[in-house]
């Protein structure tokens, strides 16, 4: 098996080299906006946020029971304390505990001054105001100290963090109503090709439904992106040039699919070279070799291949890290793990491959991966049936059954 990229006149850029070039070329956006907490999931925090209060705010009880002072306990005999009131969550006991006293207390209620221990209710027995406790009870227990989670002035979330549900909960626990986040990226995309028809049209010979725009819209569903779907532009040099220029004028990023190769009707790279700058075109990745990256005016441009699997692979491996960097979010590499291949994986040396696989885990926790089958860049069902990429190094000449391979689960698609 010969990889056609071995016929290239000069060696292609590796995936890592392409990522490095992108990293150098992209300047993250810096403008920010304040957004109310309920709308910040997945947005990129623009500044470090510190807690204006102690969390918890008060010293409070972790259990239902009785608050008492360790000074009043007895190591040898059971002892009786006088019940002087109750502290409820939201309704604290008024006053301080005196010697010989205890207070009924509930989870989350403020522990009264003078108390240093909460004894769970199961250990005590009540007879009116007389509460009997056993000998040798454990003291200094079941109390959550003020600021035990986060101290007043302590860091809640680092700047450039892509905010999670846990972050939002933590910010709310500190009473924070809104936070500064980096503004959203404006991203335009369109498909190119004379053969493309829209959904709703009757199938006809020579035409195919435009699936790339739908897959891309799904891949671009992210709270950090404002997305404009510009539809389909035919293989017409002038129309493509006009479309690209118009998109670049008011978007941070423009993404196209199709027309990035070397065929008669593949104009994308030529147009990029004439009205912008080409940073690279073609990388040693399979599927997805023809991939143009550059700039048109102030806008970053990604010309993805036309084949649907190539679109998804190059988006995930090349474009997604770039968009993340542009949005300001720190580079969090996707999780990759080793799995034992249960099928033979065919490959010719030359390009790094992202084959589609089905990853499973057995009862011992060991990972296994099987190929989804046909790996052509037009076999879109492989992306739908698979749940991971099997990543094969450029120099690999295939994998036999039982060998370990690197896999990357498709978490981003969920
Ligand atoms: P191209 O890169 O334009 O030569 O396209 C490569 C292959 O991808 C051809 O078989 C195209 O028909 C197909 N293709 C291009 N654009 C799309 C699209 N939007 N949806 C589905 N297939 C496409
Ligand atoms: Mg085409």
- Give the terminus-to-terminus CA distance: 35 Å
Instruction: Assign the CATH topology of the largest domain.
Output: Molybdenum Cofactor Biosythetic Enzyme, Chain A
Please give the domain count.
Answer: 4
User: What strand line-up does the widest sheet have?
Assistant: 7-4-6-5-9-8
- Beta-strand percent range: 25-35%
How is the secondary structure organized here?
Blueprint: H1 15-25, E1 32-36, E2 49-50, E3 60-61, E4 65-68, E5 79-87, E6 101-105, E7 117-120, E8 125-127, E9 130-133, E10 143-144, E11 155-157, H2 165-173, E12 178-182, E13 185-192, E14 196-197, E15 208-209, H3 212-219, E16 225-233, H4 237-249, E17 253-257, H5 268-275, E18 277-281, E19 285-286, E20 292-296, E21 299-304, H6 308-327, E22 337-341, E23 352-361, E24 367-371, H7 381-385, E25 388-392, E26 404-409
Parallel strand pairs: 5-6, 13-16, 13-17, 14-15, 17-21, 19-23, 22-24
Antiparallel strand pairs: 1-12, 2-11, 3-10, 4-6, 4-7, 5-9, 8-9, 18-20, 20-21, 22-26, 23-24, 23-25, 25-26
Helix pairs in contact: 1-6, 3-6, 4-5
Bound molecules: adenosine monophosphate and magnesium ion.
Adenosine monophosphate binds at residues 191, 193, 195-196, 208, 210-212, 257-261, 263, 266, 305-308.
């Amino acid at each position: 098996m010969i990889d056609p990229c071995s016929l290239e006149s000069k060696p292609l850029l590796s995936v890592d080299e392409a990522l490095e070039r992108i990293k150098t070329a992209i300047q993250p956006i810096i403008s920010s906006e304040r957004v109310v907490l309920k709308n910040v999931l997945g947005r990129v925090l623009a500044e470090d946020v510190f807690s204006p209060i102690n969390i918890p705010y008060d010293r409070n009880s972790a259990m239902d029971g009785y608050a008492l002072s360790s000074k009043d306990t007895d190591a040898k005999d059971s002892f009786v304390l006088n019940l002087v009131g109750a502290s409820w969550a939201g309704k604290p006991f008024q006053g301080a505990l005196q010697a010989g006293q205890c207070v009924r207390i509930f989870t989350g209620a403020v522990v009264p001054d003078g108390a240093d221990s909460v004894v769970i209710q199961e250990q005590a027995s009540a007879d009116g105001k007389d509460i009997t406790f056993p000998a040798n009870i454990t003291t200094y227990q079941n109390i959550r100290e003020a600021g035990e989670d986060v101290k007043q002035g302590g860091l809640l979330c680092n700047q450039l963090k892509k905010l999670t549900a846990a972050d939002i909960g933590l910010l709310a626990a500190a009473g924070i109503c809104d936070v500064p986040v980096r503004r959203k990226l404006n991203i335009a995309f369109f498909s190119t090709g004379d053969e493309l028809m829209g959904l709703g049209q009757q199938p006809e010979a020579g035409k195919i439904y435009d699936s790339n725009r739908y897959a891309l819209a799904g891949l671009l569903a992210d709270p950090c992106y404002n997305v404009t779907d510009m539809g389909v532009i035919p293989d017409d040099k002038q129309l493509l040039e006009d479309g690209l220029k118009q998109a670049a004028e008011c978007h941070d990023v423009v993404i196209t699919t199709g027309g990035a190769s070397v065929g008669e009707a593949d104009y994308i790279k030529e147009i990029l070279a004439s009205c912008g700058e080409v940073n690279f075109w073609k990388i040693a990745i399979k599927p997805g070799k023809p991939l143009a990256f550059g700039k048109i005016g102030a806008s970053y441009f990604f010309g993805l291949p036309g084949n649907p699997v190539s679109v998804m692979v190059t988006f995930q491996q090349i474009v997604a890290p770039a968009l993340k960097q542009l949005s300001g979010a720190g580079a969090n590499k996707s999780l990759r793990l080793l799995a034992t291949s249960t099928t033979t994986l065919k490959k010719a040396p030359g390009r790094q491959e992202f084959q589609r696989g089905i990853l499973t885990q057995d009862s011992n926790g060991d990972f296994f991966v099987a190929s989804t089958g046909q790996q052509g860049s037009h076999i879109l069902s492989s992306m739908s049936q698979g749940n991971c990429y099997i990543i094969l190094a450029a120099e690999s000449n295939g994998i036999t059954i039982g060998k370990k391979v690197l896999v990357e689960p498709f978490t981003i698609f969920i």
